[in-house]
Amino acid sequence: MNLTSPRRRPKDLPRLGDRIPGDEISPLMQAKGYDQPSVFQPENLLREGRRQHNKPDIPVPEICLLDPDGDIVRYLTRGGAAAEHLGWACYHTTLYTFDLNGTEVGVVGCAVGGPFAVLIAEQLAASGCELLISVTSAGSITSVAEPPHFVLIEKALRDEGTSHHYLPVGQWAHAPEHLVTRLEGALTNMTQSVITGATWTIDAPYRETAKAIELAEQLGIIAVEMEAAALYAYATARHRDVICVAHVTNAMATDGDDFEKGEGDGVHAALEVVSAIVARLHSCNGGSEVKANQDAPSSSNAEAES
What we know:
Blueprint: H1 42-53, E1 63-67, H2 71-78, E2 82-84, E3 95-100, E4 103-109, H3 114-126, E5 131-140, E6 149-159, H4 163-166, E7 172-174, H5 177-182, E8 194-202, H6 210-218, E9 223-225, H7 228-238, E10 241-250, H8 267-284
Parallel strand pairs: 1-4, 1-5, 5-10, 6-8, 8-9
Antiparallel strand pairs: 2-3, 3-4, 5-9, 6-7, 6-10
Helix pairs in contact: 3-7
């Protein structure tokens, strides 16, 4: 073989800088095949993870929690209230389980952003999760209460990429309507107030420009976060139960004393909201194993030290 001879290039292969048909349209809007299954399936990835890491095939809890900031995971593990799930075969994360007022809940920390959150959501569903709850930090757009407070997200502006792989082009991704309906009146009298409303999901937090914020304000958006639109698009396309909550803690650090979640990094307040969601949704489903208790979580093994 003559290693110095130039490589032959097919005549029909475009060269760098050449314009090709449709190149003015983002690939996000092209060739998705929404009615087609993915060639790459989460069940197959998990199968290989179990094989390579000698993991047993153990289902995850029916209820799981995404904790993008990782504060809940750190709190629970520091106090010995959470244990690693030995069957979780994800290559990128650790799944912990803990007792929440009598219900076993799985939790994954630090899965930040739509792509990561949905990757984990797909794998959790393939492993036995029936209800996924996400509690993420968010920045205030329209002031509706003094931070910190929570937003039960009923719809999210799709200013990110992942949702466009699950649903055709559209402005909003919506929470499963039956879940929002069931949660009416369930999140009152919380330590930190909970408002139902819309958020803006973005992939690039350091591109939250004045122009983009102005549009979000015009749309009546309460807060900006990084996962909800992707998770809701996934939920719609895959017919999964997902509910997203934004913990509004900041005004994008435009002033000092920002990003304050409240006592204990907001963990107690966040788990109080999660507990109320679990109690209401499972009581509606006849889940007798779940205590209809909206108090802050307490159990024999969940008294973690702050």
